[in-house]
Amino acid sequence: MIIPKGNRLSQDQLKEVERVAADFDCSILEIHGRNRCVYAILGDETHAVMFKRIAGLSFIRKVDMIESSYKLMDRRSGLADHIVRMGKTEVGVDAPYIIGGPCTIDPANPSLYLETAHALKEAGVNALRGGVWKPRTNPYSYQGDDNALSIILQAREETGLPIDVEVMDSEQLRLALEAQVDVLQVGTRNALNYSLLKQIGRESAETNSAVLLKRGRHVASPDEFIAAAEYIVAEGNPDVMLCPRGTTPALDGYRNHPDESVTPLLKNKTWAPVVVDPSHSVGHSDYVLACSLAAVAYGADGLCIESHVDPQRGIGDDPKQAITPEKMKDLIRACQNAFPNRYKIE
Ligand code: PEP
Ligand code: MN
Questions:
Q1: Residue minimizing CA distance to atom 8 of ligand 1
Q2: Topology at the third CATH level for domain 2-63
Q3: If 217 and its partner were Cys, which of 168, 188, 243, 329 is the partner (CB 3.0–4.6 Å)?
Q4: Distance in Å, CA 104 to ligand 2 centroid
Q5: How many CB atoms lie within 10 A of CB 296?
Q6: Is the minimum distance from the CB of 280 to ligand 1 under 6 angstroms?
Q7: Averaged over 119-145, what is the pLDDT?
Q8: Mean pLDDT across the stretch 172-200?
Q9: What is the atom index within ligand 1 of the atom nearest the CA of 129?
Q10: From the CA of 321, which ligand is nearest?
Q11: Could you tell me if residue 290 is left (phi over 0), alpha (psi between -120 and 50 degrees) or otherwise beta?
Q12: Which CATH number fits domain 85-338: 3.40.50.150, 1.10.10.10, 3.20.20.70, 3.30.2130.30?
């Protein structure tokens, strides 16, 4: 990775670096961090002569050869001080960043989603979630509906909160980007779908859409998880959040095996914010508070929690795992109060 002396290489400087890289069959990818740009060498970057020639250019501060399968996600990379921002809020800096909302938006009942969105805003969430398209284990279960997108867009319009929507294929990605969805969620089933990850990274580069990457449910190791995020960043979008959400096999009684404890490992290896999903992890509304507190104790920067004004009238996972907005309010308070020195409390 190449780090320039200034915040960004000029066109001429970039061309000069590209000329050197091309002599070694490599190309250069510009990645826009919040504070400065860094430049990834695509191709075999181990050519010592190329390395020296680039490092020797007067406008280059340093060239790092991070020997890791995730050299951009690595804590030692040029993106180390990158902060993911949603609007004006820096994820995990002043308080845990809370994404809340139903598992699934019911297109036949838009008012339930809108009512939930307003109640969650009142409860203090930072962003709204809601499944437009759903990855369902059972092919005969409700699969989602394009029409649900307009409902969550209306909720964003009315509440002013950013929105998080899962995308599973190119067409859904196209629709979500067209709608300027703030957070593109990659679910656990696609967490290692490298061509989708690359496409999301490429097409969301230089947009305001961040990516919430869930952990693969078959116990993706921390390195495998971070390397999956690297696919997105390496295509140009550094606004990635890592989301542990429980793994299989499940702990008897829970939906999955709770894995919030992976948080410090991830934070030790990478600069990316960790946003834990307790809802899919434990899979039962009664356990969501405990799992959320544990996640925050482990250092999570945020939480993604399923919530619904009337869980029994919800679809998808809501009847089992959604908490009400009142419970969400208590949960947010409890997470902030548990670590008074870490967060500003109003
Ligand atoms: C969801 O967030 O509703 C979802 C399907 O999540 P996961 O991919 O973690 O199962
Ligand atoms: Mn769900």
A1: 187
A2: Alpha-Beta Plaits (3.30.70)
A3: 188
A4: 7
A5: 25
A6: yes
A7: 97
A8: 98
A9: 2
A10: 2
A11: alpha
A12: 3.20.20.70
